[in-house]
Task: structure prediction
Amino acid sequence: MVLNIICITLVSLGILFFLGGAVGILRFPDFYTRMHAAGKGDTISIFLIFLGIAIYQLHDFSVANILVAGKILFISLFIMLTSPTSTHALIRAGYEEGLKPWIRKPTKGQPDS
Amino acid sequence: MKILGLISICITGWLLLSAVSDFPEWGDPHSPANSYQVSQHYITKTFAETSVPNMVTAVLADYRGYDTMFETVVIFTAGIAIIGILRRYDSSSNTINKPESFTEKPKEDLIIRTNCRLLIPIIQIFALYVIAHGHLSPGGGFQGGVIFGASFILLSLAHDLKTVQKKLPEGRILTLAGTGILIYAGFGFATIVLGNNFLDYSILSKIMLGTPIEARSHSMLGVEIGVAFTVAAIMFSIYSNLVSGGKMKEGL
Result:
């Protein structure tokens, strides 16, 4: 019962972060901020969802299930390593190509700060 | 135009979903695929005949080994064809069609290189695991070979094409690709020499240890290793040819 609550909370949190990442990709103004949303949101949400699944595996406490949970955690570790790296590589490629980051245009009457 | 697209997507989705109900039930024993005699034979007798728990691999590498051998040859031929189309040996016309930004080499990136150094050994070990476990669990030569080739692609993405070529020159890649098919066909010819049909592995128990049934299981592992050699080598060969425009000088 307690395990179920923990699992559901973790997976829902993960889905929430996924939603945030998706909204960020759609709504942010330029390439860099979009990649930022995608990289951050996906990494943490996949980690949370997989943590929830791994804890769900421990319902029946046996060696085989612990092994499965460990494998799931290894997948999430792999994604935590690769997802920020790929985001970094993409942003670096954009920077080297000379893509200008988005800056807020100064509105009339207000000094540019 | 957007509404038109939406309507067409809805109609297509409805058609696809309405076809779902015509499928046989999941795991239905009376569906056409399951009620046919051959699949009954595979499902009930695979483990007794080959001592391989993964019957997909048993069908792939043993019952239909001839088919799989030529699938490997297809991959080899695809790699050879791509080399034949793309590979350029002249070095004189090297800088003609090149944009300015590609000529100067970008600085190597610490984060990407460190992460790849961390990941590539793990990926390669996992690839070997997939190959070696092909007859016991889902996996096999094709999958493991692709993962192994991907690790080299990752290395050449993180560093340079030259870094990989120092370890694995072009000629050696092609040798490996040919070796894979040679291993596969070698198993077949060994069975002929010992007096059985082509790729009928049970006779190999005379030179391997164990019973004829175990010999089939071990030969499947050997055949998978051959497939993995070819697939891994051809994967990297295709990548390096595509990425350098056939010049094999510098990649991305």
Q: What stands out?
A: Chain B touches chain A through nine residues (CB under 8 Å). Chain B has a mean pLDDT of 86.
